[in-house]
């Protein structure tokens, strides 16, 4: 004869439902939005002056699980030429949350000098197009399971080259989740 326990049955059903919900929940791509660019200093790199800036980026984790990510670097391009990079420090983000990241970046003016004609035209129009790419890798924790992920982000940002105001932006993030 089998001993039947409603408590065990309910706990088992709840555990099965929770596991099924977590496993069937489709992960969503995080969102990124450049809020501001602030110049922090100029460094003389004779005969040019490199610029150090802080990029303030608003990041949203729309998923129901917390994420932990490793440090990486964002590459910043102007007219297809690598202009500089921004350091993304390792960190974490709670489920369904937003946070501001302050990314220090160094932009090399020697690279801008190679595109002087285009830069002058952009300054005259007060619109400069910058592109950025970054790959962020980390782990999303579901109970005691850790699932590795990789997010590839491509950003196309139009800024006012005089005041560094963000005019327009388009961001695309592709999330790849590893099940092993």
From TrEMBL:
Renumbered to this chain, the signal peptide range is: 1-16
Q: Which SUPFAM superfamilies match?
A: LEA14-like (SSF117070)
Annotated membrane topology? Single-pass membrane protein
Superkingdom, taxonomy of origin: Eukaryota
Where in the cell does this protein reside? Answer: Membrane
- Which InterPro entries does the UniProt record give? LEA_2 (IPR004864), NDR1-like (IPR044839), WHy-dom (IPR013990)
Q: Name one GO cellular component term.
A: membrane
Please indicate if the UniProt record lists Signal as a keyword: yes
Q: Give the GO biological process terms.
A: defense response to other organism; response to desiccation
* Water stress and hypersensitive response domain boundaries: 37-152
Keyword tags: Membrane, Signal, Transmembrane, Transmembrane helix
UniProt protein name: Water stress and hypersensitive response domain-containing protein
């Amino acid at each position: 004869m089998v001993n039947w326990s409603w408590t065990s049955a309910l706990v088992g059903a709840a555990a099965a439902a929770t596991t099924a919900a977590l496993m069937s929940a489709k992960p969503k791509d995080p969102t990124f939005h450049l809020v501001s660019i602030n110049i922090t200093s100029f460094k003389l790199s004779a005969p040019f002056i490199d610029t150090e800036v802080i990029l303030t980026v608003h990041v949203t984790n729309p998923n129901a699980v917390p994420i932990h990510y490793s440090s990486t670097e964002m590459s910043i391009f102007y007219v297809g030429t690598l202009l500089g990079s921004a350091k993304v420090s390792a960190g974490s983000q709670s489920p369904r949350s937003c946070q501001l990241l302050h990314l220090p970046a160094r932009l090399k003016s020697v690279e801008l000098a190679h595109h002087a004609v285009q830069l002058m035209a952009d300054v005259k129009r007060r619109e400069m197009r910058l592109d950025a790419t970054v790959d962020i890798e980390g782990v999303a924790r579901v109970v005691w399971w850790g699932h590795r992920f990789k997010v590839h982000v491509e950003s196309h940002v139009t800024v006012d080259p005089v005041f560094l105001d963000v005019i327009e932006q388009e961001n695309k993030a592709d999330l790849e989740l590893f099940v092993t």
